């Protein structure tokens, strides 16, 4: 009994002593002040807050993992070491990109602290990097969110401290000029400042962050792709992805849960330009912490808008096994640019919540109102499939692509034209007797009267000089071999000769 | 034909001349170098710590007309400011900050601290102009040093202090606002950045550097 | 004017190599005549003709364009071999002896020893991990100096085909591409690229370069502070704006210079020398 009391007293004494000593020690910690200009200033004294007890090193994780929840009930001093690495990594299959990262990956490390914590932030710019970098954390109250104080050249570190005054899920990003390029190259991440009360526990916590990439090549074009400034300024990304790469949350990297689990996703948007319409297909957000705040909770939300530079926390319970894609519901981004990930839920079925397909049968409804003959889609013509040599068939196939992108609007998919303005191409005597005239028509346009198959037409055809010689040769070959037409091919060289000989064209309406 | 031969000969002569000049240059460098090498070989131990500003060889002139190297400031802590006399915006505030720091020191501390002002304006801030400045701003004769120098040396000192500056329009200089505290050995121990800042920490630092 | 025809002749030069003997005598004669009026051109330097420098950051009161007098600039960045000669002749600049105030702990970090560059610093690659003080000392030792920002930007504004490279979108794209590529651990030899119209190589695409007044842009680390100036930290900056927010390469050079201290030694930062006419 005495022993225990003595031990308890010793322990209390030690705690107080250590706290006292550590508070004293931190008064003499040096720091580099860099407000307004770099200068070596070793003796900046960070005032000590009596509410803050102890010191610990922050646990940082890579997406999709999250550091463990905060369990302490006191604010503490947290030391964060974050290294900037410019690394070449996979952006998509066969596609590589030089990412500028906080911690070696996109998004950057997840930082988890508590309201009231004092953070001593060290930013290390790896010596092999090309660029200077800094950091703006949206959780920081102070100039630039830390940017002015964290600027570091390659091979150098910077340090500053801040107090986490506001709880919430915040974005951080690099703010070195040109900012758009630094963010566009992947320099963003999330910092979670838990409220004093903390978040309710869940079975799984995941970290997902959306961002766009602007590459010189198109989506999927292989090789090491450089950043494309024009696309970035015009907000035309080649890639919109989660966690820095196409397929980062697919296959073996899919997020997982069991039926009956609660899942929490810390979802951020690094931008640089696009807002995300975050949605989980097949689910709802049971609880949504709007804009990453701890206090503004919504329930039963289907899709949430997350602007660039913002974040959201979503909690949901998965009840039915299956595949639940995470998407940006601006849907072309999901299916054509990579903004899709997977949450795989395993476990027993729950037929009451979702039955799955219960059956399918034949169905016959009333006939739909008939479509005028001229506008009915033409059946595929035999000449396209058979009777052509392979080279000609290929040419026609390419020509058909051009036709169905451009010409069909006026001349119709069945080549029959419209009314008195647009002459037909099918079985057209003018078309079949004057091959080069047709090429000239595509190049220079045509207006005024034209008699085709004995009928008079009066209209205007706009020129298409933007089509290449190949494309024009292909499309004219195609129309001269479709809908009952049969003629010889047009060579690209014939088109280029005509193009050179053509008089100066009127302004191209497409430019 | 003759003219081209002449110009060819001229060109050759000039080139030889140029090469000779260059060789002479290199020789001089060699002489200087060998002198310094001897000194280094002789093992002259550096009198100043590795990070002391007083290791530079630059020559300056005080407003009293005295030639001085920076190491002439050694021996007491220095509060250093880079400024120029014709500045109409920040420098008067910075000078006032220096005065506030001086006033906040106890008399026995003040006697041990130097205040050094170095001008960016090498053309107009001659020693005479700086002497006028000292009078106009009522700066004490003792412990306050005003320095005029060459533009190369000003560039070097600014680089050492981490001060950014450039010549702006109308003879003005755009510069960062930095007050630096050097210890007696000439090492930077603290920098105060900004205008009309809180001087308490600077005063505290100086207090630790002097004998109390 | 003599200067302009010189530039036109130097357009689209192949990668650097010593010219043929006959060609050299012709150039000697030409240079000799030029040298008659001016000083002799130092070896391995090119003439950067009179130009105009448009500062990236300036206050409203400062001129938009600053004339830059013609000067000589090294055709190549200073190489490891050049620098080896310098440290041999100036032992106080050897790695183990350099003062920390003049060069930080990373000085000549990639060299194997004081007088041994080693495999990570090939002889003909640009010397890096050198501080501003070291670069200045080298230039002085050679009887030369560092170029100013204005001079460097003037020289670097030319592409391989035209003096006004900012109007050459392919040139701008090429520079952009360099920023999208990682820096190789061992730098390649200088002079492998096509020279610009002045005859200078590697002003883009190899290493960043020190300039004499690297600390002349009054920008802080946070590039978004409205107009890059804060009266509290900078005197006389006025309200500066950036000349061309779309000139990303220019931005990056200014941002990089703004992050430097004079004693910094960085793995992809080298320098070259300039000389007055």
Topology of helices and strands:
The complex is a heterotrimer of chains A (511), B (212) and C (277).
Chain A: H1 2-26, E1 52-57, E2 75-92, E3 95-102, E4 111-114, E5 118-125, E6 136-137, E7 156-163, E8 168-173, H2 179-184, E9 188-194, E10 204-213, E11 223-225, H3 229-233, E12 239-242, E13 255-258, E14 262-271, E15 276-280, E16 285-289, E17 297-301, E18 303-306, E19 310-317, E20 322-328, H4 331-336, E21 340-346, H5 382-385, H6 390-411, H7 429-433, H8 435-444, E22 446-452, E23 455-461, H9 469-479, H10 492-501
Parallel strand pairs in A: 1-2, 2-5, 3-11, 4-9, 10-14, 13-21
Antiparallel strand pairs in A: 2-3, 5-7, 6-8, 8-9, 10-12, 14-19, 15-18, 15-20, 16-17, 16-19, 20-21, 22-23
Helix pairs in contact in A: 6-9, 8-10, 9-10
Chain B: H1 2-41, E1 59-62, E2 67-69, E3 78-83, H2 90-104, H3 107-110, E4 114-119, H4 127-136, E5 144-148, H5 151-161, E6 165-167, E7 173-176, E8 178-182, E9 188-193, H6 200-209
Parallel strand pairs in B: 3-4, 4-5
Antiparallel strand pairs in B: 1-2, 1-5, 3-8, 6-7, 8-9
Chain C: H1 2-9, H2 21-37, E1 45-48, E2 51-53, E3 57-58, E4 66-68, E5 71-74, H3 80-89, H4 132-141, H5 149-156, H6 169-179, E6 208-209, E7 234-235, E8 241-242, H7 248-258, E9 269-270, E10 274-276
Parallel strand pairs in C: 6-9
Antiparallel strand pairs in C: 1-5, 2-4, 3-8, 5-10
